[in-house]
Amino acid sequence: MKRPSGTRSILLGLFCLLSAGSAEAHILPGQATGFFSGILHPISGLDHILAMVSVGVWGAQLGAPAIWVLPVTFPIMMAFGGLAGFLGVPLPAIEIGIALSMVVLGAAVTLEAKPPQFAVMAVVAFFAIFHGYAHGTELPRGDSALLYSLGFVMATGCLHLLGITLGLIHRWAWGKGALRLAGTAVSLIGVFFLWSAAA
Prior knowledge:
single chain, mainly alpha
């Protein structure tokens, strides 16, 4: 059966996302400098890429209003987490929280979970704090912190947009299957990260 036109690029992006090699999830404190560093940082770690893209995919599966509420909720709460990290507010088990975000968000995509809207927002907001905190601890002091944050937020938005674009294939039966497979892969990778963080 011929696949609907216009979906090959989406499938290619999904394939590249799932076949991406592992990367260092975080850079060392004090090495984050400037706008372009902020743009590159979210795409330098597979854990952040998969979690942020999964937010967009899940939003697309849920439809309105989640398709736009989730990509707004995540950056807002990530900013609060980033501020906490920047200020040195203690928050335990950061890497475990980030790994769990992949497990939970991947499972949500796999199951096409449709809990109440407030619960969806709460899950996304909770995990956004951990992602933001991890980046906040790496923010540079001084003027470059603002530029770095701006670049980071823009990159995060692009990852959410990529997830939404990929998630639109759920309207077709083969697309639903592909997203479930992708969600399962994200969860399994999250389990590996969780095992590594807990080791």
